[in-house]
Design a protein that fits this description.
Layout (H helix, E strand, L loop, with lengths): L4 E6 L1 H5 L3 H10 L3 E5 L6 H7 L9 H8 L5 E6 L3 H9 L12 H5 L8 E3 L3 H12 L6
Helix pairs in contact: 3-4
Bound molecules: adenosine-3',5'-cyclic-monophosphate (CMP).
The site of adenosine-3',5'-cyclic-monophosphate has 8 residues, from loops.
Length: about 140
């Protein structure tokens, strides 16, 4: 059975462009409850840790640089079927391939600066949520 939590972060491009509020509105209107949230900035090392699964990929160094270039807004979200429903809401990794009305179609600039992250499994949602919110109260 699929879980009821997922992890997301609004990425530096979308935060810098002032889209944080509009994106959170989309998330809440889609039925997700924000149970933990903060605004923070990663070091390049922390970005590398978070995306360690991609360390052999050619875009890894650029991704670490980009993800540590400005403020981000990580969140833990709650809803039934959270992981799959959230990935539908945000759309494809490449905004050129994202469906109309998705967060990435509306706000992403490129396949790298793609506005928002969404966990790809219940297991990764738990790992990624702990990365930012271990020991934090959830409401
Ligand atoms: P995300 O869903 O957070 O997971 C990994 C991230 O790496 C992805 O979003 C993009 O920001 C980035 N990414 C994935 N594929 C590419 C690519 N082909 N070129 C550059 N960046 C990528």
């Amino acid at each position: 059975m699929s879980g009821n939590k997922t992890f997301t972060m609004i990425k530096p491009d979308a935060v810098a462009d002032g889209h944080t509020g509009a994106i959170i509105k989309m998330i809440e209107e889609a039925g997700f409850k924000v149970v933990a949230m903060k605004k923070t900035q990663l070091t390049s090392e922390q970005a590398g840790q978070f995306y360690a699964v991609h360390k052999e990929r050619p875009f890894y160094a650029d991704l670490c640089r980009y993800m540590s270039s400005g403020a981000i807004v990580p969140m833990i979200l709650e809803k039934s079927n959270a992981v799959a429903d959230f990935r539908t809401l945000i759309g494809a990794t490449d905004p050129a391939k994202a469906d109309e009305g998705t967060v990435r179609k509306l706000y992403a600039k490129s396949i790298e600066a793609n506005a928002i992250h969404g966990s790809d499994s219940d297991e990764n949602a738990a790992i990624e949520g702990s990365f930012f919110f271990a020991g934090t109260e959830q409401y």
